């Protein structure tokens, strides 16, 4: 009987050894597709972040606009209130018809004390005691505003009444018109020096008898 020759070459078992696959362009195409997918996902994520930031910026801009509108509204209200706090000339004249000037007021007098002295004349709206703006000391006079004109008329009747040992001077309040001074202006004649005389263009000085002729 003949025997088969024993093969000494190592046997190649496909189950124990990996056989490299042949190179294919299909693999490159699939890799490119996956890369594009990942790139699209990254771009979509960045786009969502940008959209979120834009949304936040729009909300902040809206809040800022609302705050600006509120500030403008408050400023408009403050401007209107400040304009209303300054009465017109007609309103001031009407208030002055209900007000009186009080002079020779004791320096220790308070607004409440002075208002109590005139409370029987009518309803007192406001008592204003004037103070020196530099020293802060009272000037010795005040103003009282009444709710009605009859109050000011009754207050004038208390002229020369005693208050804290002083005789008050009560007068109807005058309206200070802008640009018009209430004090009388005294006209003064121009002074001439002693010993100066003028007669028909001839001027003499002192006791000199020699005339002096003016060239003009």
UniProtKB/TrEMBL annotation:
Domain RRM: 98-175
A molecular-function term among this protein's GO annotations: poly(A) binding
Protein name: RRM domain-containing protein
Region annotation Disordered: where it falls in the sequence: 1-28
Coiled coil: 40-77
Lineage top rank: taxon: Eukaryota
Biased composition (Polar residues): 1-14
Entry keyword annotation includes Hydrolase: no
GO cellular component, one term: nucleus
Key words, A-Z: Coiled coil, RNA-binding
Entry keyword annotation includes Electron transport: no
UniProt cross-references to PANTHER family, sorted A to Z: EUKARYOTIC INITIATION FACTOR 4B-RELATED, EUKARYOTIC TRANSLATION INITIATION FACTOR 4B/4H
């Amino acid at each position: 009987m003949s025997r088969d020759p024993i093969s000494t070459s190592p046997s190649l078992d496909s189950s124990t050894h990996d056989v490299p696959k042949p190179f294919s362009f299909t693999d490159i195409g699939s890799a490119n597709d996956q890369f594009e997918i990942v790139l699209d996902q990254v771009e979509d994520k960045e786009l969502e972040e940008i959209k979120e930031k834009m949304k936040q910026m729009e909300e902040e801009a809206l809040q800022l606009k609302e705050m600006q509108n509120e500030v403008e509204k408050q400023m408009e209200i403050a401007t209107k209130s400040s304009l209303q706090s300054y009465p017109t000339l007609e309103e001031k004249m009407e208030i002055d018809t209900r007000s009186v000037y009080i002079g020779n007021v004791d320096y220790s007098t308070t607004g409440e004390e002075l208002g109590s002295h005139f409370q029987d004349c009518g309803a007192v709206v406001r008592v204003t005691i004037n103070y020196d703006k530099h020293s802060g000391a009272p000037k010795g006079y005040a103003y009282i505003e009444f709710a009605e004109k009859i109050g000011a008329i009754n207050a004038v009747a208390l002229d020369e009444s005693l208050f804290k040992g002083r005789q008050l001077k009560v007068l109807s309040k005058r309206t200070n018109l802008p640009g018009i001074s209430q004090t009388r202006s005294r006209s003064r004649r121009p002074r001439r020096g002693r010993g100066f005389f003028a007669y028909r263009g001839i001027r003499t000085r002192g006791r000199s008898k020699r005339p002096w002729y003016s060239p003009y």
